[in-house]
Design goal:
340 residues; alpha+beta; 15 helices; 12 strands
Length: 340
């Protein structure tokens, strides 16, 4: 298979060519990276029909920690799959004192109970729950550690299967009847979704996506009985069918999109590796990108109601015109920024 056929088949699997429903995206792709909700929204929008995205598509989706211990959007009913038993990420910390000893395990559990009690009569926002903790004596030091931006006590309660966080309003609610999947079955299902939803991928890609050892990933691959295809001399693995098709002329890809997370960043065929720092910043941000004819050639950002395009290198006038035209159609207005 040549590289262009591979790109088109992958883009088809990822929902960039044939639109998908939000539920299909979640099931096929192990959810959507959602550390920044504006990027997650764009990730869903770029794969959905406009009429579907305009509706109430996120009612059954949660936004919380899962794969690799990072924040994802996925179906509420699949919480037991991603928060499976004996996983290595997002381990509970309610039964241990803080590392510096400033907060005891008993204090953590006290405020956990305060939050759980307050959720008995309905879902609440983060700020409401902060206020009730303060009202029950939480100090500034405790708040800084237990209600921090990295999750704190909320992440711990989610890890225990006691609460969940809505995707849309980002309210917290009590989770009922949580029974985690067994580790082996969950990992098998998650791995199968990766190879069927993003493949054909290399072993290096899979290790990058899962942040796991070579031996562990190879064990999953053997048990899945994967199909193989040679792409530019490299063996790639997949489940399901590969469907080569026409690649859209211009695509606007969300920040932290699976297109950047599913493939090893130094070997990702969708962009020239010399532009890696234009996309992946030193602070861990994965910028929104513009794809032209199957290759990422620029980043984009919204400035008020205008999309601003920053190309990696100077592009031909025809390419610039195509991108600006597509950006205006997608966002209403657009402007071009040349790299300094």
């Amino acid at each position: 298979m040549d590289i262009r056929e591979w790109k088109s088949a992958v883009l088809h699997k990822m929902g960039f060519i044939q639109p998908m429903r939000a539920e299909e995206i979640c099931r096929a792709h192990n959810g959507v990276q959602a550390q920044f909700q504006v990027y997650a929204d764009r990730g869903f929008q770029s794969r959905m029909r406009s009429e579907d995205f305009a509706g109430d598509w996120s009612a059954d989706i949660v936004r919380q920690w899962s794969l690799r211990g990072t924040v994802h959007a996925y179906l509420k009913e699949e919480i037991p799959l991603y928060l499976y038993r004996d996983r290595l990420y997002l381990q509970p910390f309610l039964y241990q004192s803080s590392r510096d000893g400033s907060i005891t395990a008993a204090e953590k559990r006290y405020f956990a109970d305060v939050i759980l009690d307050h959720l008995q009569d309905g879902n609440k926002s983060r700020e409401e729950l902060k206020d009730v903790c303060r009202a029950h004596g939480m100090t500034e030091v405790q708040e800084a550690k237990l209600l921090n931006a990295w999750g704190g006590i909320f992440a711990a309660l989610i890890a225990e299967g006691l609460i969940y966080q809505e995707y849309g309003r980002r309210y917290f609610g009590l989770l009922k009847d949580y029974v985690p999947w067994e580790k082996d079955a969950a990992e098998h299902t998650i791995a199968a979704r990766y190879f069927s939803g993003f493949g054909a991928v290399s072993l290096a890609d899979a290790r990058y996506y899962f942040k796991e050892s070579k031996a562990r990933v190879e064990d999953w691959m053997r048990r899945l009985d994967l199909n193989t295809v040679e792409v530019e001399g490299k063996t790639r693995y997949y489940l399901g069918e590969l469907t080569p098709c026409d690649i859209p002329k211009v695509l606007f890809v969300a920040g932290f999109d699976a297109l950047l997370l599913a493939f090893e960043k130094r070997e990702n065929p969708f962009f020239d590796a010399k532009h890696i720092r234009d996309i992946y910043t030193m602070t861990g941000i994965l910028k929104p990108t513009v794809m032209l004819d199957g290759t990422l050639v620029a980043t984009w950002r919204m400035d008020r109601n205008k999309a601003r395009i920053l190309p990696f290198t100077r592009l031909q006038a025809s390419a610039r015109k195509q991108i600006l035209s597509a950006a205006k159609a997608a966002f209403g207005d657009a402007d071009w920024e040349e790299k300094s």
